[in-house]
């Protein structure tokens, strides 16, 4: 009988998306094939402490896993000779937890921005998803837009990068520069350059509302991206693969709020998603092709979700890319692949296979 693959699910994290990560991990645990994998879960608290936890799925989902008295301190070290995760058994001894592959379902800062990926690369443990460089570049919305612009793949919204240090030095000058750049045209979107799940994003309709929106975004990052508003359908494509990635069918977001912010994604059950079925074969092929080309331009591996706007005249406008999309029960990434013929459990298998192929060649 073939030995089970030792799978470690890494979740939680220090970012503002900690709770989403916990829900993603719980969903993974519900769907992963227990006959194929020996599963361990390592949670990271908001304070940055790592623990091996045996808490039930319901406690991981709710965040109560942190209170489990049987949790053990866990460490991943940048030393390939260790061959796994170090677990502190008591004050004087450590054990090594075998890890054939790690599935990080971490979102936001220190989760999908290349930091964890760099550590895992140094440790020599195979992991699901893109490497450190692609993760870092893809997490930064400004860098992503610059790379995509150089690649001439797809249209993008007009945008401007603003820095917290310059705003603190001369706020009036920066606000004036913003208005001039956008020709005093509103509304604008104000986004932290490095944040996911639409955390810290505001839709600004007047110049008077800009300072508050910038302050909100600067709470998440020192760098903020301002974009013109694009009117169009919000569509998403899931991409899967390493050298030869594939694109899923196309999904659409119907946000309950004015835009698809954190509340609309995770708290307001009036938001809806659907599989797009009204496009011509040519337009669908165009969108899926653009998603794959963007994925390749960013150097992604394993998985990513690529978001677009589809305007009334058929123009496709790039929105953003997410290298570690959510895996909750409402997340579009697994939904899109299920609609494309790959159920959740088989999707997990495929992602793990891709991680092992990337490492072992």
TrEMBL record:
One of its GO terms (biological process) is cell wall organization. Its main location: cytoplasm. It comes from the Bacteria. Its EC number is 6.3.2.4. InterPro entries: ATP-grasp (IPR011761), ATP_grasp_subdomain_1 (IPR013815), D-Ala_lig_Van_CS (IPR000291), D_ala_D_ala (IPR005905), Dala_Dala_lig_C (IPR011095), Dala_Dala_lig_N (IPR011127), PreATP-grasp_dom_sf (IPR016185). Cell wall formation. This is D-alanine--D-alanine ligase. It comes from Lentihominibacter hominis. The lineage of its organism: Bacteria, Bacillati, Bacillota, Clostridia, Peptostreptococcales. The gene is ddl.
């Amino acid at each position: 009988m073939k030995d089970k693959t030792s799978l470690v699910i890494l979740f939680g994290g220090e970012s503002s998306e900690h709770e989403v990560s916990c829900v993603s991990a719980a969903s993974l645990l519900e769907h992963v094939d227990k006959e194929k994998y020996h599963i361990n879960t390592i949670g990271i608290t908001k304070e940055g402490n790592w623990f091996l936890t045996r808490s039930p799925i319901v406690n991981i989902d709710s965040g109560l896993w942190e209170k489990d008295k049987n949790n053990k301190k866990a460490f991943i070290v940048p030393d390939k000779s260790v061959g796994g995760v170090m677990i502190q058994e008591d004050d004087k001894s450590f054990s090594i937890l075998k890890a054939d592959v790690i599935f990080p379902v971490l979102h936001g800062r220190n989760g999908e921005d290349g930091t964890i990926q760099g550590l895992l690369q140094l440790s020599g443990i195979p992991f699901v998803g893109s490497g450190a460089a692609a993760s870092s570049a893809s997490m930064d919305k400004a860098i992503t837009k610059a790379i995509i612009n150089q690649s001439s793949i797809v249209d993008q919204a007009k945008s401007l990068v603003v820095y917290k240090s310059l705003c603190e030095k001369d706020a009036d000058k920066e606000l004036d520069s913003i208005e001039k750049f956008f020709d005093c045209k509103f509304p604008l979107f104000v986004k932290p350059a490095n944040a996911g799940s639409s955390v810290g994003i505001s839709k600004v309709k007047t110049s008077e509302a800009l300072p508050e929106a910038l302050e909100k975004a600067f709470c998440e990052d020192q760098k903020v991206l301002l974009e013109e508003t694009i009117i169009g359908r919000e569509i998403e494509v899931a991409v899967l693969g390493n050298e030869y990635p594939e694109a899923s069918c196309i999904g659409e977001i119907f946000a309950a709020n004015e835009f698809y912010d954190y509340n609309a994604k995770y708290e307001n059950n009036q938001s809806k998603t659907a599989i797009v079925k009204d496009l011509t074969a040519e337009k669908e092929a165009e969108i899926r092709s653009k998603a794959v080309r963007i994925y390749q331009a960013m150097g992604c591996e394993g998985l990513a979700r690529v978001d677009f706007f589809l305007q009334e005249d058929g123009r496709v406008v790039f929105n953003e890319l997410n290298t570690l999309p959510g895996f909750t029960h409402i997340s579009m990434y697994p939904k899109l692949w299920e609609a494309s013929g790959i159920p959740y459990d088989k999707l997990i298998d495929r992602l793990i296979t891709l991680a092992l192929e990337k490492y072992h060649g």
